[in-house]
Amino acid sequence: MVLSFLSLGRLPEIRAGDDLAGSIAEAAPPDLSGDDVIAVAHKVVSKAEGRTVRLAEVRPGTRARALAAELGKDPRVVEVVLADCTELVRAERGVLICRTRHGLVCANAGVDASNAAAADEVVLLPLDPDASARRLRTGVAAACGVAPAILVTDSFGRAWRVGQADVAIGAAGLVALDDWRGRAGARGRELRATAIAAADAAAAAADLARGKDSHEPAVLVRGLERLVTRDDGPGAAALRRPPEEDLFR
User: Are residues 136 and 147 in contact, defined by beta-carbon separation less than 8 angstroms?
Assistant: First the structure.
């Protein structure tokens, strides 16, 4: 298997209501295939969907002000985080670990000021990243005549590891979790725990091709055709660990 990851270059500045799928289609190569995958940074998706908040319009509540004082954070940002999560798992060392409405566990519920259009603006996660991926896939297919798989990605910290890596928070047309359990390994032994987070692996590698400061939100991934599906599939929801299996709770 040969894999390749190619940035699609800079896209026009995306604002709420813009045709992101059209911009991606225009940046895609002429030989774009239905076996390809396009990984898209969530911030550009969120901007297109209007998932941004101006801090000047936020009025922090009592809990947000108390947490902000304890953690040394802007109480308006804390208020946005609290409003966009279903559970505050832990608050320590300046970080709010939250369970989002999507079931993701991440720092600050994914609320981030990097790459925001204005100094007092923060970007939230898409309301439904899997639905976002499906819409982008449909839009690219309408413009190009082929339907590549789509990943919506974000940078997450990882338990037991230092640093961040991009993961797939939304997916359409890709087997996100390549489950090998029940198959025989190279020596004939049954695999009992091997389930490859294929969408996360692709997202992390795509981020290396894009670069954090490049303003190039879309990356073309080739070589994963065995995992690309004609139907949209269950999306990145397949990668979310149920709360009852969360050993860190």
Answer: no
First-residue to last-residue Cα distance in the chain: 38
Cα separation, 102 vs 124, whole angstroms: 12
Residue 53: pLDDT over 80: yes
Q: Are strands 149-157 and 37-41 parallel, antiparallel or unpaired?
A: parallel
* Residue that is written with structure tokens 């599939």 in the block: 233
Residue with tokens 């991009």: 166
The DSSP line for 177-237 is SEE-TTSB-TTSPBPSS-EE-HHHHHHHHHHHHH-TTS---EEEEES-GGGB-SS--SGGG
Alpha-carbon span 84 to 64, nearest angstrom = 13
Give the tens place of pLDDT for each residue, 16-27. Answer: 999 999 999 999
Query: Which of 88, 48, 47 has its CA nearest to residue 66?
Result: 88
Domains of the chain (ranges; CATH) run: 4-50+126-240 (3.30.1330.100), 52-122 (3.90.1660.10)
The rounded distance, in Å, linking the Cα atoms of 100 and 156 is: 13
Per-residue pLDDT at 147 exceeds 90: yes
Does the pLDDT of residue 208 top 80, yes or no?
Answer: yes
